[in-house]
Amino acid sequence: MAALLLVAVAAAAALAAPAASAQDRRERAGKPPNPCLDREQRAKLLCPDLRMKPPFGLVTDPFVRPGRVVLRAGNSIDSIGRGPAELLGVRDRPRGMRARQRIHRRGGGRLWIDTGARLLFKAIPGQGAYWKFQWAARFELWRLDRRGERRKRVRRGPKVSYCLRDLDHSRPRLPRSPRRFVYPACNQSPSRQRVVLGTSVGWSDVYPPGYHEQWIDVTGLRGCFDLVHTADPRDGIYESNERNNTGSVMVRLPFETGIQRCPGRKPADPSGWGGFDPIAY
Q: Dihedral sign, CA of 165, 98, 157, 259?
């Protein structure tokens, strides 16, 4: 009886335990603490803040994988902090680089931090290869219950790597947002020993639904789900706010374009482009 009681108490404690914070994950991984989460240190820095917009432009595609149906979606990683999100990669493998983050200091200078971030030279069909930030994002599909709450993750998408670049000047009125881009298109040189990736304040790195790996397999699924896109899931970039990295949209599967209706949720139309111009991307 005592043994059963101990098991029950342990199970209850496990269920009650809060989800691990970004700081907890860093400590377990042996990485240095995030100075942007420390009030005193943050006051001396121009810390970045990445925010993932909700997925947009949803459409099914039966041609990516024979016999399967995938759900495509575009997304935008917005840089809305006081300083840019910036990584410097140094070659340490034939197709890989070890990256360190550069956080700008107020009044000049930069703070270098080894966050464990990595760059890889990733091939894109029909375009060639690019230096990209590995684990820049994560795509997930979560099943919803009758109250509209997430219950179980059922699928993951293949897209994890992004260039980080200044593509869309989405919020030009933010303080310290440069008028012109600072971080250009992805570098395609296989011989480069150093590469800088980043997104300036007020700029966004946007990918359309039709881009390579912008999908998640939905074959055989029925019912209501959340399509969840998360920026920087492994904390390769230290930010002043680690709680706004996820954007999501509700979908009913099999997917049909138009208004989506599910119990416990407000109707939504994820097939739109959310203010983005499809031709521009």
A: negative
